[in-house]
Amino acid sequence: MSHLLDRRQQYVSLRRGVALLLPVLALIFALTLYPFDFSASWPPQPALALLVGLSHGLDMLQNVLLFTPLGIALHWLLAGMGAGRRGQVVGAVIVAGGLACGIELAQLCIPGRTAALVDVLANAGGAALGSWRLAQPVAPVVDRFGGWCLAVVRQTPAALAGLGFIGWLMVAGGLQAHWQRATLPSNWSERYTLQIGAASDGRRFWPGYAGFVALYDDAVTAAEARAMLTPSAALAGEPLVAYDLTQRPPALGGPFARPLAAQGKPTFTAEGVGVGYQRWLTSGEPLAGVAAAVAQARAFSLIAQVAPREPERSSEGLMVNFGREIDSHNISLIQSGRDLLVRIRLPLTRPRNDRPALRFAEVFHDAKPSVVAFSYDGVVARLFVDGQPHWQTYTFGPGEVLANRWWPVQAHQIGGWTVALAVALSLPLALVGAPWRGRRWWFLPIAFAGPLIIGYAPWLVIPQPLSGAMAWAAALTVLGGSLLMVWLTKPFETRSGA
């Protein structure tokens, strides 16, 4: 009887450890391996970077807290495998330390991450704290709560649970479709003018030359971008507004174009108009009608031929700004050193200082003219440089809309939040693996349909390229969660009698 009791206790500890270990590992990998930006990653001396890398006090505390649940999970897991008290603590520290070393090595290759061996000590210390001090006091509380949840599940009819899942899917799909509308360019201002070389208030000058500027109410393709490399081609492409700056005065194109007024003394050359340092151009009046056309099309493209006089310029300069002031704009093309920043106004962004600023790296290598074409189809932001696609794209989804309600979403997080939202909305469907009372055959199809509904609900508004990734993430969440739920709720008697 004592041997049977020990086996039951080990099994309880094992299932408890597995239940905590899987979500903890997912959280650790998500928080430590996601890129912070798109800059160069591999340092010139990786070994030295590991040795001399330092973390501030708050970062060290975060590393300790992040690995504390891992120490608890490993303690329970090793106890379930029959390890003694010392083996549980030592094993947890060794496994956590090895995992931390692997993460630090991986961070050498991840843009924006800082790898440091001192972080390994903090991670191992957090695991030791969880295994040595917290695992045993927390275990009875977890078992009591888990037993209460299991009792509730066993008393709930499967039909009632199924109706709850169906209701959840309807709400989740509706929210996904509703939030997707916030990625459409439907809130542009009709009062804004077009500025070239600075904002309308004369701030953030950009020294360079502009050959032509054209705005369209559709998202250009790579073939169309290659066909619009000259002012005449840009004006012939049915733009909403276009300016050929190689002529004097600039030639206008499109139904909403307005004459350009010179501020200061811009210089006119064969390359276009030269601006910067108290010299810029602005449309004489707001481009009324453009916002309505873009909102109706739910897409736009901005194409400009530009030549920066200072390719290594560190401060930001407004090349093309369709707005009113430095932080009030519908769309802006900004030079930031060799990179191109694009700010667009969408319902998911804020009216002023719109975020996120989309950074396209290594666009400007010298002072030669380049044709940059930025397109947005309501979901995907793309850039073409001299007709060639840039390697970076940004895919907006409902996850970014939800996250941006509380804090500004940064460029490197675009797409990641939407996949995370699909996972979160799929988690309740993993409960189909729980032992509901009177389960029927129709119960499982709900779990199979759930990832498709959650992943493809944004298609009700606009084609959503992330839907495939969202559906896969949701399906893996439901499958893994359901199998884990079946294993965790299996009666102890079956295990002990095996």
Describe this structure in words.
By secondary structure, the chain is of the alpha+beta class. It is built from 14 helices and 17 strands. The chain has helices at 2-33, 46-52, 57-80, 85-107, 117-155, 158-180, 222-227, 231-235, 290-297, 398-403, 416-426, 443-456, 467-488, 492-497; strands spanning 193-196, 208-216, 241-244, 251-253, 260-263, 267-269, 272-275, 280-283, 300-308, 317-325, 328-336, 339-344, 358-360, 370-376, 380-385, 388-389, 394-395. Strands 2, 3, 4, 6, 7, 9, 14, 15, 16 and 17 form a 10-stranded antiparallel sheet that branches. The protein has a 7-stranded antiparallel sheet with strand order 5-8-1-10-11-12-13, with no helix packed on it. Helix 3 (57-80) packs across helix 5 (117-155), helix 4 (85-107) crosses helix 5 and helix 11 (416-426) runs parallel beside helix 13. The longest helix has 39 residues, at 117-155. The chain is elongated, with a radius of gyration of 28 Å.
Low-confidence stretches: 1-5, 40-54, 492-498
Number of H- or I-type helical stretches:
14
Number of strands: 17
Sheet with the most strands, sense and barrel status: 10 strands, antiparallel
What structural class do the secondary elements suggest? alpha+beta
What count of domains describes the coordinates?
3
Q: What global shape is seen?
A: elongated
- The first-to-last residue Cα distance is 15 Å
Radius of gyration: 28 Å
Strand content: 15-25%
Q: What is the helix fraction of residues, given as a range?
A: 40-55%
Round the mean pLDDT to the nearest integer and report it: 86
